[in-house]
UniProtKB/TrEMBL annotation, chain A:
Name this protein carries in UniProt: Small ribosomal subunit protein bS16m
Molecular function GO labels: structural constituent of ribosome
Nucleotidyltransferase in keyword set: no
Family classification: Belongs to the bacterial ribosomal protein bS16 family.
Organism expressing this protein natively: Daphnia pulex (Water flea)
Principal location class: mitochondrion
Lineage: Eukaryota, Metazoa, Ecdysozoa, Arthropoda, Crustacea
Cellular localization per UniProt: Mitochondrion
HAMAP family hit by this protein: Ribosomal_bS16
Basic and acidic residues bias spans: 106-116
A matching Pfam family: Ribosomal_S16
Database matches in NCBIfam families: S16
Keyword Ribosomal protein in record: yes
GO process terms (BP): translation
Keyword annotations: Mitochondrion, Ribonucleoprotein, Ribosomal protein
UniProtKB/TrEMBL annotation, chain B:
Keyword Lyase: no
Homology family: Belongs to the mitochondrion-specific ribosomal protein mS26 family.
Origin organism lineage: Eukaryota, Metazoa, Ecdysozoa, Arthropoda, Crustacea
Keywords attached to this entry: Mitochondrion, Ribonucleoprotein, Ribosomal protein, Transit peptide
Record protein name field: Small ribosomal subunit protein mS26
Keyword Ribonucleoprotein: yes
Length: 131, 215
């Protein structure tokens, strides 16, 4: 339900990924929203973006507005796991435990079959296709 | 691009508010429906995590939450400090000051204007009251003068009427005894006196007509 109706209870705000893009081509907006809004509902502020598809240089591009993220964290906004992980990897926040757990699991287990092939270009190809 | 969002309203599941002709989205199995044959004797696989790994995961999460808590607190404190002394706050303060000065100036001018108007009004009023007072004083004087004149006239009249003083008393008695007054008469509306048995004034001859006057 959209939050266009005026409410008097305090609804928590959350920084999370909103999936946009199209079929087989996801693209995420890092966004501040009220918890009860849908991904396609009203957004308080867009605070970055995350491209899940690696580009020709085998990079997954992430953009984050750290000043605004700090402001919203100060206002008491929550964070979803992926956003927390991204911010940890960027160095703004401490590393999320999930990143470390996933990394040692990747080292342990054999890689999974993937539908999409990584794009071969200038940078050397990934040796762990799980990432 | 937009996934169908199924809503859960009043515990009625699997309804979408958005009308669509394609397949309905599935939220959950209806309560009360029986278990499927393929799932009857299924045992869900439980992941085994060794104890040391569990301990490591717990340690990582505890550390992380501790750090995040302190970070959030720190961010909050920073935001408070910025609100007090940041650029935005300073600008706001400056603008408020300017607004205040402007409004005070406006107020002062307004006060001056109204003071001028008030003074003029008061002047006019003072003039009016002064004139009123003068007029009333003059009136009062006139009235007292007239009153005194009337009193004088009255006194004169009273003095003019024949009062019997102590010296005249014997004379007055003798006079009264010598001239008895006979009140056995009738009187007309016009004041004509009828002493005899005549009832019309025409019957009485002119020389013997008597008329009382109201002085």
């Amino acid at each position: 339900m959209a939050s266009a109706i005026p409410t008097f209870t305090k609804i928590g705000k959350v920084i999370r990924l909103n999936k946009h893009g199209c079929t087989n081509r996801p693209f995420y907006h890092i966004v501040v929203q009220k918890t009860r809004d849908n991904f396609d509902g009203p957004v308080i502020e867009q605070v970055g973006s995350y491209d899940a598809m690696p580009n020709s240089q085998h990079e997954k591009l992430v953009a984050v507005n750290f000043e605004r993220v700090q402001y919203w964290l100060a206002q008491g906004a929550g964070m979803s796991n992926p956003v927390a992980q991204l911010l940890g990897l960027s160095g703004f926040l401490p590393n999320h435990p999930q990143t470390l757990i996933q990394s040692w699991k990747n080292r342990r287990e054999p890689p999974r079959e993937r539908k999409l092939q990584p794009i071969k270009g200038i940078a050397p190809p990934l040796d762990n296709p799980k990432i | 691009m937009f996934a169908r969002s199924s809503s859960r309203i009043f515990n009625v599941i699997n309804i979408s508010c958005i009308q669509s002709r394609s397949a309905r989205a599935w939220v959950r199995k209806p309560l009360g429906s029986p278990m499927a044959k393929s799932k009857m004797f299924r045992i869900a696989p439980k992941k085994f995590i060794p104890a040391d790994e569990k301990a490591e995961v717990k340690r990582l999460y505890d550390n992380y939450f501790h750090q995040m808590k302190s970070l959030r607190h720190y961010f909050f404190e920073q935001s408070l400090e910025q609100a007090e002394s940041g650029e935005v706050a300073q600008m706001k303060h400056r603008l408020e000051e300017e607004e205040h000065i402007r409004l005070m100036e406006e107020n002062r001018l307004e006060n001056e204007k109204t003071a001028k108007l008030r003074e003029e009004k008061l002047k006019i009023q003072a003039e009016k009251t002064r004139e009123n007072i003068l007029a009333s004083l003059i009136n009062k004087e006139e009235e007292t003068r007239l009153y005194e004149i009337q009193i004088e006239a009255f006194l004169e009249k009273q003095k003019a009427t024949p009062f019997i003083q102590a010296e005249n008393i014997e004379k007055a008695i003798e006079e009264a005894l010598a001239n008895p007054v006979d009140f056995n008469f009738a009187i007309d509306l016009d004041g004509y006196v009828y002493r005899g048995r005549e009832t019309a004034i025409e019957k009485i001859p002119e020389e013997e007509r008597e008329r009382l006057r109201s002085n």
